[in-house]
Amino acid sequence: MDEELLELQRQFEFAQQVKSSVRLSDRNVVELVQKLQELRVIDFDLLHTVTGKEYITQEQLKNEIATEICKLGRVSVIDLADTIGVDLYHVEKQAQDVVLNDPGLMLVQGEIISQSYWDSIAEEINERLQECSQISVAELAGQLQVGSELVQSVLEPRLGTLVKARLEGGQLYTPAYVARVTAMVRGASRGIFVPSNLSALWAPLQQLVQEMNGSSGVAVENAFFQSIFNRLLKEEEMLGSLRAGTHWTPSVFAVAQKECVDSFFSQNSYIPYETMQKLGISQAVQFLQSRYPDGKPLSAVFIHSSMIEMLDSTTEDAIEQNSWIDSLSVLPASFTSQDANKILLLCPSVQSALKVAEKALILAESYVISSGFIKGIYDQIEKEAEAFSIQASTASLIDHPSKSSESQESIPANTDKGSKKKKGKSASMKTATVETVPDDEEEARPKSKRNQKKGRDSTSSQKLDAKAGGKKESVKAQEGNNFTPPDGWVMKKIVDSVPEFEDEGMENPDSILKHLADLMRPMLINSLKERRKKIFTENADRMKRLMDDLQKKLDESFLNMQLYEKALELFEDDQSTSAVLHRHLLRTTAATIADTLLHDLDILNKLKNGIEVGDSKAQDPVLLESSERMALAKHLNGSLSRKALALVEALEGKSYSVGILMGVNAFMTTFRDLAEESGLVLKKLDKKLERTLLHAYRKDLISQVSTESDPVALLAKVVSLLYIKAHNKALQAPGRAIAAAISHLKDKLDESTYKTLTDYQTATVTLLALMSASTGEEHDCSADRILSKRELLKSQMPVLRSLVLGDSQPQQS
User: Fold this and answer.
1) E3 UFM1-protein ligase 1-like N-terminal domain location, by residue (predicted)?
2) 3-state secondary structure string, 648-675?
């Protein structure tokens, strides 16, 4: 067998040495290899080299890669591709298999590194450490062109063996260097006697080490100092406590700290938290509770139970004597108002007083005030509060006393005559003054009234009460605080009763004055409300009677006003005369009923507000000036006041539109609005009532004409009767409108009657002119002329009467 093998070797060697007579081209070789692969004679993968002239197997590629790694220790995959001559893709793939199968290799950033390489690097680092004592891992990583984490992970298992050093904070230190820095940390730490932050201690140590290493030295991280400090503390080479890793408290300071706390607390029976902070104790409450279980923590101080006993005895005396005490006045200055409040709640006497019938109250956190003391102050203030309420009510509602009904006219006015009663109703009627006088005398008011009343529904009074009740509820909420004393007034009265409280200051919102005022003012409001409720109940009947009387007054007056208004329609074409008639009616009849309504509403408002109002005579008419009407209207409430102001403006002629006379119409509208808002019901003048009133008015005028002795006043009454006869209207005309009124009758009268009226009116104007021009002196020659003119008028009076009484003589008999 061996001989045959040797023979084959010789033949193979011969065959190799024999030169081929036929040479294959590269293409033929490639085709041959492909044919062998197709025939599966070559059943493994072949890789082309970069030149394309050689084939290499994957196994051979792995072997060559492993050979290069063993030779160099650290080789780049790219360099392997260039060295072996195989495409980079195949080299990377086989390199990954090589690294995967060999745990001693690693593939990092395209480089294959063996453990032997790192061992040699570790030996070089150790040699450098012996020279410079410290090396930065970052510096090593920069030199080796790898990451710091990789260098650190490689060095950690070799520390103490190949590398005689200590790795801390990214730095490598030799044992000698570590021992030197440990001695520095130990010395610096033992020199501290007060709580300190170790971060502040490491800064000078860093500077010292930097100076020791020179310019070539690397800065030492705080973590290195901290690790050394922690090791020393664990080995009990230093005594103290470390909190949060950096706050160091030496044991000598802790002992002195506890001695100071014990000394202060034993001497004063309390200790402020501010003092604890100055001693360096941040969690003062926990520290004190653990050291003094019997103590009580407050907001700013920690107290001993003896402080509670001391304050309890003082407050108990104040409560028993119906007095007060400010606990801050007996407590040390370190106590705040919150502390005082908490310690008061711990006092047995205060707890008992608060529970048992509220014998005392705690106000402004630190004041203990007995209920008897508060009651004494309240009783004094309550009396003054009642006076304050009455004074405020009176000041806000000006009382307008009723004025007498004496006439201000310079010429005598008509008087009621011939009043007659009819069965079932009163048909008398008031006649307005109609005289021929200048403008400044047109302010005269009618002096007589005739009662005219139709039967009303029996439930009308109840309706009025219901409306008044509804309005009462709507303003009740507003009236509650209108006349209650403000906080400033209450505080001032408290100071008057207790002058000691004056130093607290009335502007301080936390003062005892403010708290007492807040306590007493609701009590005063309730007391005043009860008083006003009582007064209102007492005034309820009077208010009902007042509304009923007012309703009766307005029933007859407003019907008369509607009757007189209809006569104004006759003068719509004569604007100047119409303006005079409107103004006259507003100043006479309209003013009277408006004054009556405003006056009675003012009394009603006062009764609602609990103000005593004296009884006025019901038969006396109310006469008010313009300013008085405005004041009364403004003192009413809400919408009532607005509508009353509108009535006053209409009454004074401020509602005239340009070119259109709206005086009486505006007054009637505003009067109805105000009456409706007040809960009053106004009757509307219908045909039946108009005939009744007109008949009564005519009879009254006939009676006055029959008995009139003044030649001037007679003319106006005769003209009014003629208007009733001609137009069936009740005309109210002032002296300056008589001429125009007579001219409007020209078409309704015969020539003789019209001439008689014009002549009499001319003579009347002449007489008034002479009287106006007369000086009243003895030598004044106009007196004779006045007398003669008056005699002339008196002689014509029978003729004038005959114009209106001729048809009614049988009735007069």
Assistant:
1) 4-288
2) HHHHCCCCCECCECCHHHHHHHHHHHHH
Which tokens hold the place of 162?
């190949």
Residue 721 to residue 727: CA distance in whole angstroms:
10
608, 469, 636: which is closest to 533 by C-alpha?
Answer: 608
- Position of tokens 């509820």? 473
Average pLDDT, the chain: 75
| Helices within 235-283 (DSSP H only) | 251-268, 273-278
Retrieve residue 274's tokens.
């501010």
Measured in whole angstroms, the distance separating CA 786 from the mean position of its chain's CA atoms is 78
Q: Taking a C-beta distance cutoff of 8 angstroms, is the pair 117, 75 a contact?
A: no
What tokens appear for 281 in the block?
A: 């104790």
In this structure, are residues 398 and 625 in contact, taking their beta carbons and an 8 Å threshold? no
* Residue 279 structure tokens: 């001693």
CB atoms within 10 A of CB 458: 7
Q: What is the 3-class SS of 322-371, one letter each residue? A: CCEEEHHHCCCCCCCHHHHHHHHHCCHHHHHHHHCCCCEEEECCCEEEEH
State percent of the chain over pLDDT 90. Answer: 4
Question: Contact 528/609 with Cβ under 8 angstroms?
Answer: no
Find the largest Cα–Cα distance for the chain. 200
List, for residues 696-742, the tens digit of each pLDDT value. Answer: 888 888 888 888 888 888 888 888 888 888 888 888 888 888 888 88
The C-alpha atoms of residue 739 and residue 744 are separated, in whole angstroms, by 9
Of 98, 100, 106, 122, the C-alpha closest to 74 is 106
Burial class (CB in 10 A: 0-12, 13-18, 19+), 139: middle
Phi, psi of 114 (to 5 degrees): -100, 160
CA distance 813 to 811: 5
Q: Which residue pairs from 66-71 have beta carbons closer than 8 angstroms and sit at least 24 positions apart in sequence? A: 66/98, 66/102, 69/98, 69/105, 69/112, 69/114, 70/114
Angle of helix 148-155 versus helix 115-132 axis, rounded to 10: 90
Residues 195, 199, 204, 205, Cα dihedral to 10°:
100
pLDDT at 240 exceeding the cut of 80: no
- Between the alpha carbon of residue 760 and those of residues 31, 580, 733, 769, the distances in Å are 163, 21, 16, 14
Mean pLDDT of 83-106: 79
Region of 117 (left: φ > 0; alpha: ψ -120 to 50; beta: rest) is alpha
Q: Is 411 exposed, middle or buried (0-12, 13-18, 19+ CB in 10 A)?
A: middle
DSSP class of residue 159 equals B
